[in-house]
Amino acid sequence: MRISQLSKQGVFFMDHSFLSGSDFVGITFWIVSIAMWAATIFFFYEGMRVSGKWRTSMVVAGLITFIAAVHYMYMREYWVEMGESPVVYRYIDWVLTVPLQMVEFYLILIAAGAAVSGGSFWRLLVGTLVMVVGGYLGEAGMIPVLLGFIIGMIGWAVIIWEIFRGEASQAASSNQSVSAAFNAMRLIVLVGWAIYPLGYVFGLMMETVDINTLNWVYNLADFVNKILFGLIIWNAAVKDSASA
Ligand SMILES: *C/C=C(C)/C=C/C=C(C)/C=C/C1=C(C)CCCC1(C)C
C-alpha cells in the first residue's frame, strides 16, 4: 500500500496499484476472475436453449460463477494491493457457492425425474455449511485450528457419504446422461475439493506451503471446481434436451 497524495482537505489518496507482469499469482487471480464472468454469460445464455426442466440447473451454474466472479474482483485487488491471502473473501464466496453446488446435485436429479427426498437435500446443505463455517472459525483463530479442521472434515464426509452411498447416489442411476454427469460431479467433490483441506493442512497447520503457492493452487482449483462443474451440467442438459 502506498500513500502518495494528500488533498487540501487532509484526505489521503492511495496510489493505484496495477498488476505487475512478474506477479504470477496476481495474473492467475486476474485470469480466473475474467473466466468466471465469461462462464456466467455462457451458462445464462445456454440456459435459454435447453429444455425447460434443465433451466434452473443452468441458472444456478451461472449464479455460482457470478458470485465467484464478484469475489474474484475483490480478491485480486486485495492480493495486488496487500500481497496477502484474501481469506475473508474466499470464505464468503465458499459459504454461498458451495451450498449452491449441493443444490445442483439435487436439481439434476429432479430434472431426471428421480424420486429423491428432501432429507437428501438437507444433508447436503448442512454438510456444506458445517464444512465452511468450521474451516473459517479455525482459520480466523476463533477456535483452535485443529478443531476447525476436524469440524470441516466431518462436514465434507457427510457430503461424500450422501453422494457416493446415500440416497442421492441411488437416485442418480435412473437416467443415462444424468448419471454420467452425477459421476463426474461427485469426482470433483472428492478429488477437486481435496485441494482445500490439503491447503489448510500444509498452508495453515504445518506452514510448509507459502502463500504464493497456496493462492495459485486455490485459484486453479476454483477454476476446475466451479467452471468445469458447470460445464458438466451444461453437457448433460444439452444431451438430455436433444434426446427428449
Ligand atoms: C468454489 C469453491 C469450492 C468448491 C470450495 C470448496 C471448499 C472446501 C471443500 C473446503 C474444505 C475444508 C475442509 C474439508 C476441512 C478444512 C477446512 C476447509 C474449509 C478448507
Layout of helices and strands, plus pairs?
Blueprint: E1 3-6, E2 12-14, H1 24-47, H2 55-82, H3 87-111, H4 118-139, H5 145-164, H6 167-171, H7 176-192, H8 195-205, H9 211-243
Antiparallel strand pairs: 1-2
Describe this structure in words.
The protein is 76% helix and 3% strand. The chain is an all-alpha fold. It has one domain (2-243): Rhodopsin 7-helix transmembrane proteins (Rhopdopsin 7-helix transmembrane proteins), CATH 1.20.1070.10. Strands 1-2 form a two-stranded antiparallel ribbon. α3 (87-111) packs antiparallel against α4, α5 (145-164) packs antiparallel against α8 and α7 (176-192) packs antiparallel against α9 (211-243). The longest helix is centred in the C-terminal third of the chain and has 33 residues, at 211-243. The mean pLDDT is 91. Bound molecules: retinal.
Quick summary:
This protein is mostly helical and 244 residues long. 76% of the residues lie in helices and 3% in strands. It has a single domain, classed as Rhodopsin 7-helix transmembrane proteins (Rhopdopsin 7-helix transmembrane proteins, Up-down Bundle).
* Rg, Å, rounded: 20 Å
The helix-and-strand class reads mainly alpha
Task: Give the cofactors and ligands.
Answer: retinal
Mean pLDDT: 91
Which series of helices and strands comes N to C? EEHHHHHHHHH
Largest sheet: 2 strands, antiparallel
In CATH, the homologous superfamily goes by the name Rhodopsin 7-helix transmembrane proteins
Q: Give the tally of structural domains.
A: 1
Fraction of residues in helix = over 70%
Shape: globular
Please report which band the strand proportion falls in: under 5%, 5-15%, 15-25%, 25-35%, 35-45% or over 45%.
under 5%
CATH architecture, by name, is Up-down Bundle
Count of DSSP H/I helices: 9
